[in-house]
Amino acid sequence: MELYELTLHELQERLARREVTSEEIVKSIFTRINRVEDKVKSFITLIEESALQRARVIDNGGIYPGIAGIPLGLKDIFCTRGVKTTCGSKILENFVPAYESTASGRLDQQQGVLVGKLNMDEFAMGSSTENSAFFATRNPWDLTRVPGGSSGGSAAAVAADEVPFALGTDTGGSIRQPASYCGVVGMKPTYGRVSRWGVIAFASSLDQVGVFSKDVRDNALVMNIIAGHDPLDSTSAAIEVPDYTSNLDGDVRGLRIAFPKEYFGPGIDAAITKSIKKALQKYEELGAIVEEVSLPHSQYALPAYYLVAPAEASANLARFDGVRYGYRDFEAENVVSMFSRTRAQGFGDEVKRRIMLGTYALSSGYYDAYYLKALKVRRLIANDFAKVFHDFDLIVSPTTPTIAFKLGEQSGDPLTIYMNDILTVPVNMAGLPGMSIPCGFEQGMPIGMQLIGKAFDEATLYKAAYAFEQNTDYHTMKPDLGVK
Amino acid sequence: MSKDFEIVIGLEVHAELKTQTKIFCSCSTAFGAEPNTQTCPVCAGFPGMLPVLNEKVVELAIKTGLALHSEIPEVCKFDRKNYFYPDSPKAYQISQFDLPVCVGGFVDIDVNGQKKRVGITRAHMEEDAGKLVHQGDITTTPFSLVDLNRCGVPLLEIVSEPDMRSAQEARAYMEKLRSMLLFAGVSDCKMQEGSLRCDANVSIRPIGQKEFGTRTEIKNLNSFRALERAIEYEANRQKEALEDGEEIIQETRTWDEEKQLTRSMRSKEEAHDYRYFPEPDLPPLKISSEWVEKIRGQMPEMPDQAQIRLVEEYGLPEYDAGLLTLTPENLIFFDQCLKEYPDAKTVSNWMMGELGRLLNQNNLEIGECNIKPIDLVQMLKAIEDGSISGKMAKAVFEEMFASGKSPALIIKEKGLVQISDEGTLVPVIEDIVKANPRVVEDYKNGKDKALGFFIGQIMKSTRGQANPALVNKLLKECLDKQ
């Protein structure tokens, strides 16, 4: 086994036993990156020199608590002090923040070693990472396929052994869908669980920070560090964070699991339905109680989401006007033309499409019919979930309707690509925690199972996911990138 | 306004709330710093930055609401008001749209003895924008610079009902509102520094008509005078337009201080669609009744209460009480004088008279001038015990105002002590009377002027220091002996 192949907790053990140094791990990681990166193209920015330097400083300290000395990647949406942060956009192509996001700052304080910033759909708008202003990332399992999105770089990098773990963000499925497509573990916690401070906003009431990892234990370890109240984010919850690793015991006896019939309907690949049903059977074998339920309003989640998210985005992205930072058009003759030319040249098509959608939805005379109505639908969706969680501990469904599609296959049709998120969006609309874990393969491509929990009950998701993982070997499968 | 029409006025007042730090970050709010030295990634609208509400802002907003007799709802919320402008770094302003912090209320005004109650619609919290610095005129400047120091300074926008019917009433409302904000201690209310700003909604309608006319909104009103002038101008403009058979266009106009007229800025069609929606970065704000009651318990005396006290306790006319309660500094000055010198009306006369005149002349506030309450009291005591005359006192007072010296020192330095010694005055009087036998005759023939002539001569020869009452008495005695 090469060091880059190991999980976070395996690396922790080796560091603790002084079998390796952080520098050796980081070197191994960059060896791997150098070998596979031109195929996978996960990273927008790599910082090898500073990563190695950081590793040596940590090695000199001689102790490795927590994630000290362990490499990591960040979606390029996290502002990193002194390290270029593009959000996948030309408009921020040369933007170097003077501040560090709370989530990445907590990893930094724990002496995690940042190796680079990961590719993404521009401003997190997309489901394939093809909307990156720079280049498309490839799925390590099949380089002709997309890794999913918007956190496609994060998912691909973990799947390709370029980093043991990475952070991403999820507004409508941007962690769970790429995790599913790339066969890794992806957790989007409850809205408010992790601070959004320093994370470039897409849709503020839906955005949430989460973790990509190779297995469930690693994911829980990282969540332990980044979760918790932040006084700088007024929407972050002042609710105590349990130790997510403490009940990874494989015991799901008596756990009440619901599967919503609407999430297994037409439009979902038969192979995927079959795979999830098989997983549910496994849970029953392990002693869980599994029953079918209904979430009738979930079918309205996607249209409502495409009003709420673009509306918020239209305001969040208005600050990119060329006045203070980022790209500016210098040909403009007056300030209004500078605004429009800067934005016309700086934003990609999908971002413009959503800004226009959101601007329209908020316009005088349309607000009640669109935005306000969408908020009401959101309430109904949340009520559906609350009703189910009155009797159940957990909801299980497919993460996506299909396996990863081919590059370019859906790029002409926004509506088709929006359908990728049909099973993940309701979870964001309700603010609940959702997770995707590998649960099978179809045409050699991974299938993801979505676990949905009660608000702030990530612990139950980790517990159930761990039990499944302990009784299957999907998470140990690795893509063959044709290099050694 | 002719008697056929009446003016309808509503005011939107922006008061800067007096906090150390901005509404959503910890940058200083101090006025007059070097450009962009009081900014941070939050108030400069950098990517990924989030607002955190300054609790002090809410406290001052509640305080204002209580002063204005408003209701403070248990829940209010913030909204985004979207518009592009280089002084607005997020391209939206965080404001409050449908659920403001203060609902309803009123301000009582008094115009020439006529009392009136002006309704308050609402008051809401919001952030100020930055400032653009042009090279000369905005229309010809080759470039403009952005100063974000003011960006994120907390404002309370106080919206009145369209209850005012004249420019005078609007001014009285504005002045009264200012004094209330000053007494509540929530704002500095310095119009020239922009910490109190005002927009006026003005329309006219035929007397007796119930429906409002089409209104225009006037901006750039930077003084009480500008407010009054602009409303008068605008009402006349509208009247002339209507009389010429034109329609009033709903639009935003700006007051041109130099030309003393209002100019069109943008029409209704050009008006922004602000696309308000709830600010997702700030949860709804819950205000407990305990908090409100705690603040209510700490409310200082407000101008209306102080006026009643001055009238009832000291027997002052309402007019005096009104002027003495224009600012808290006025009232504190008065109250301090009264502790040492119980004649309220005399103190009031001096404050409204000489002191007011000198302050106006020098464009100063009472707290900024040389005269302290103890100085006025000493001077009044000197008049009372006869050391100086009322006329001398005015000269002394001017010197006190100019130099800050105590009245005792000025009286001594200038040798201004009043002559109240009969032994000194009698020979002076007798000499003057003897030297003017014809005037004595006039006096005996009942000519009033004669007495004045003698007093003038006596004052002249004593350099004004003779005690006037004593001179009067001694002169009459002397003349009667002739």
The number of E-state strands of chain B comes to 16
How many strands, which pairing sense, and closed or not: the largest β-sheet of chain A?
11 strands, mixed
SSE order of chain A, one letter for each helix or strand: HHEHEHEHEHEEHEHEHHHHEHHEEH
The Rg value of chain A, from CA coordinates, equals 21 Å
Q: What is the rounded distance between the termini of chain A?
A: 11 Å
Helix content range of the residues of chain A, please?
25-40%
N- to C-terminal separation of chain B? 65 Å
CATH architectural group of chain A = Alpha-Beta Complex
Mean pLDDT of chain A: 97
Poorly predicted sequence stretches spanning 5 or more consecutive residues of chain A: none
In total, how many beta strands of chain A?
A: 11
Residues in helix, % of chain B: 40-55%
Shape of chain A: globular
As a percent range, the share of strand residues of chain B is 15-25%
Strand and helix map with partners:
The complex is a heterodimer of chains A (484) and B (482).
Chain A: H1 8-16, H2 22-40, E1 43-46, H3 48-61, E2 71-75, H4 102-109, E3 113-118, H5 152-159, E4 165-170, H6 176-182, E5 185-188, E6 208-213, H7 216-226, E7 256-260, H8 270-285, E8 289-293, H9 301-316, H10 335-346, H11 349-362, H12 368-391, E9 394-398, H13 414-418, H14 425-430, E10 434-442, E11 445-453, H15 458-470
Parallel strand pairs in A: 2-3, 2-4, 7-8, 7-9
Antiparallel strand pairs in A: 1-3, 4-6, 5-6, 5-10, 9-11, 10-11
Helix pairs in contact in A: 2-3, 5-6, 7-15, 9-11, 9-12
Chain B: E1 5-16, H1 55-67, E2 75-76, E3 79-82, E4 92-95, E5 102-103, E6 106-111, E7 114-127, E8 131-134, E9 144-147, E10 154-160, H2 167-184, E11 196-206, E12 216-221, H3 224-243, E13 251-256, E14 261-267, E15 277-278, E16 285-286, H4 289-297, H5 303-314, H6 318-324, H7 328-340, H8 344-362, H9 373-384, H10 390-403, H11 407-413, H12 422-435, H13 437-444, H14 448-461, H15 468-481
Parallel strand pairs in B: 12-13
Antiparallel strand pairs in B: 1-10, 1-11, 2-16, 3-4, 3-15, 5-7, 6-7, 7-10, 8-9, 11-12, 13-14
Helix pairs in contact in B: 2-3, 5-6, 7-9, 9-10, 12-14, 12-15, 13-14, 14-15
